[in-house]
Design a protein that fits this description.
The complex is a heterodimer. Chain A is built from 3 helices and no strands. In chain A, α1 packs antiparallel against α2 and α2 runs antiparallel to α3. Chain A is mainly α. The mean pLDDT of chain A is 89. Chain B is mostly helical. Helix content of chain B is 75%, strand content 0%. Chain B is globular. Classes of the chains: A mainly alpha, B mainly alpha.
């Protein structure tokens, strides 16, 4: 059985975190932001799985399963919210949502 | 008969199980769509109160359990049912009761009433789960149950554009903050090979990976900081409060914010911050000191210039988040530790009832005048004497006037700051409390000194009056006899350090 070194896995997960954070900060469409958030969650997940192969117990594996469930639940409720916004505003571009802001 | 391990867990989880049953039954009872159904708030209230009763029965010795089994409270169990859990569950259920009472005759929900009460119960159940957790897994899971329920609650009123906009903003920033918390947790897991809160703290105190630990703690702080409305992460909070409906904003202010602080207290006070007295804690304390000062200043100065009630209460909440951060800094030193926990617990408890009372009155006013501009509060003292009296008391308590509960919570927080040597926090806190007298006093002046501008009569409803009476009793009661709470918070400190 071939194994991958831990530094390579950590480099991958950190790179994914950077890509996801870049996507959240630069993208305009809410769908693209949601995809970037999923990338962020998965980078944390890679960390959990990678570290749990080097430690005793099942904490890391359990957490990874729960993170997948959290990601699925967030995607479900997110798409419902986006659909509702699309019905009211005609688009899901975040910069175009300027109804609420400081008046002073 | 001796209770086995499983029955014992069933007994300790009974408050959460009752609420989950309540979620399902409330959904089922909402079959008559497009009609106001007074059964639904009554059911919601009944489930909250029975959950309260189950909580006290499970935590006291009225029905004793076998000593051979004992409460599963070793540091290796996933859940820990101590005094800190009891405090969190009381906060969660009180918030649920206040929100239910405030929304009883609310005219915002002509449909979707069942969804509202079911989601409120679900969110409160999430709060209780996270307050019982001793491990990162149920902690984050409970926090997510609460968060996802609030995402749905904010965009519940589908016809209103502002609710949709507030919902998408809260969802996008909230899901980003969740991934921050998870990434920080994964770094801690890598450093300590454990997700158990106390183990993480102990292993971490002996390790030499201080830089990575600081990074992980910053990620968690940034993630939790959004829902706790701490300043660099507060940007969308006033917008969300503005767009969502009053009953939901009430829940966000008194439950969601306390839950975020509870997560912060669990991770920082129970996990990584106990006084190990090393460089890592001191660096973290200095970083949080700077954030606390900025939060107090921005919150208080922002509240000075607001013209609508929701944004005013949002900035008031931001300033109180800054006050609560003092406790997390002061906990680092041995001297400030006792008063830090006294101040934090008392302020979380006080903030719930003070802000809850303000929101209950604001719900009444906004229902009658269909607007939340602050000038509608002019002359309220003549049209509705009881509501304006309670609002004035809650504002005086938020500002910190002596006989009320808000004075004692700020007193212990500033005392903790001085005892731990962070004098700057006490100085900024006292100056900012003085600033807060101006903006709270302005609305009290509106109510009692100014002439009314609107002719609308402000009606009050029985459930709201009942909720206001609860808040009034607690604001005066724990203000005059604050020692009774302090003895409880000393038990909480012993529980945190166990």
């Amino acid at each position: 059985m071939t194994t991958i070194d831990l530094p390579i896995i950590l480099f991958t997960s950190t790179a994914l975190f950077g890509i996801g954070l870049y996507g959240v900060l630069t993208q305009k469409s809410a769908i693209r932001i949601l995809i970037s958030v999923e990338i962020l969650l998965n980078s944390a997940n890679i960390n959990f799985v990678a570290f749990s192969t080097y430690s005793e117990g099942y904490d890391g594996w359990t957490m990874a399963l729960f993170v997948m469930a959290i990601a699925a639940a967030e995607a479900a409720i997110g798409i419902a919210i986006f659909l509702n916004v699309f019905r009211r505003f005609g688009s899901v571009n975040v910069p175009s949502l300027v109804g609420l802001r400081e008046e002073v | 008969m001796t209770l086995g391990f499983d029955t014992l867990y069933l007994r300790m989880f009974s408050p959460i199980i009752i609420l989950f049953v309540g979620v399902v039954l409330t959904f089922v009872a909402d079959l008559r769509k497009n009609e106001r159904n007074p059964l639904l708030p009554a059911m919601s209230l009944a489930f909250f109160i029975s959950s309260f009763i189950a909580l006290f029965l499970s935590m006291t010795d009225i029905f004793p359990y076998s000593d051979t089994v004992g409460v599963p409270d070793s540091n290796l169990s996933t859940f820990h049912f101590g005094d800190f859990y009891l405090f969190g569950a009381i906060l969660a259920l009180s918030a649920g009761v206040l929100v239910t009472l405030g929304s009883w005759y609310s005219n915002w929900f002509d449909q979707d009433q069942g969804f509202f009460y079911a989601l409120i119960q679900l969110a409160v159940a999430g709060f209780i789960i996270l307050s019982a957790s001793e491990n990162f897994i149920p902690l984050i899971l409970g926090y997510e149950i609460l968060s996802i329920a609030t995402y749905a609650l904010i965009s519940l009123k589908k016809e209103r554009k502002s609710a949709a906009e507030a919902g998408i903003k809260y969802f996008l920033v909230g899901s980003l903050s969740t991934s921050m918390i998870l990434f920080g947790t994964s770094i801690f897991f890598g450093l300590t090979h454990s997700l158990q809160l106390s183990t993480v703290g102990q292993v971490f105190a002996e390790s030499d990976q201080q830089v990575l630990g600081f990074l992980a703690a910053s990620f968690i702080f940034a993630g939790v900081g959004f829902k706790a409305s701490i300043v660099p992460f507060h940007a969308v909070i006033p917008d969300v409060y503005d767009g969502a409906d009053y009953s939901i904003v009430n829940f966000l202010a008194i439950a969601s914010k306390n839950a975020a602080f509870f997560v912060l207290a669990k991770i920082f006070l129970r996990g990584i911050m106990p006084p190990f007295d090393d460089e890592f804690q001191n660096t973290l304390a200095i970083a949080i000191t700077i954030i606390a000062i900025i939060t107090m200043i921005i919150g208080n100065l922002g509240a000075l210039v607001q013209t609508t009630m929701k944004r005013f209460l949002a900035y008031s909440g931001i300033s109180h988040a800054g006050f609560m951060l003092i406790a997390i800094v002061a906990y680092v030193s041995d001297d400030g530790q006792v008063d830090a926990v006294n101040g934090l617990t008392l302020h979380m408890f006080a903030y719930l009832f003070m802000t809850g009372a303000a929101f209950l009155v604001a719900i009444l006013v906004s229902q009658s005048v269909k607007s939340d501009e602050l000038y509608h509060y002019k002359g309220l003292g003549k049209t509705n004497i009881f509501a304006s009296f309670v609002l004035a008391i809650s504002f005086l308590s938020l500002a910190g006037i002596p006989p009320l509960i808000g004075f004692w919570s700020k007193f212990y927080l500033f005392k903790a700051a001085i005892e731990s040597g962070y004098y700057i926090l006490a100085i900024v806190g006292i100056i900012m409390s003085a600033v807060s007298f101006f903006y709270y006093g302005r609305i009290i002046k509106y109510m009692f000194a100014d002439e009314s501008v609107t002719e609308t009569e402000i009606r009050s409803f029985f459930p709201t009056i009942f909720g206001l009476l609860i808040c009034l009793v607690i604001m005066f009661g724990f203000g005059l006899w604050s020692d009774s709470f302090i003895s409880f918070s000393e038990d909480i400190l012993a529980d945190l350090l166990s």
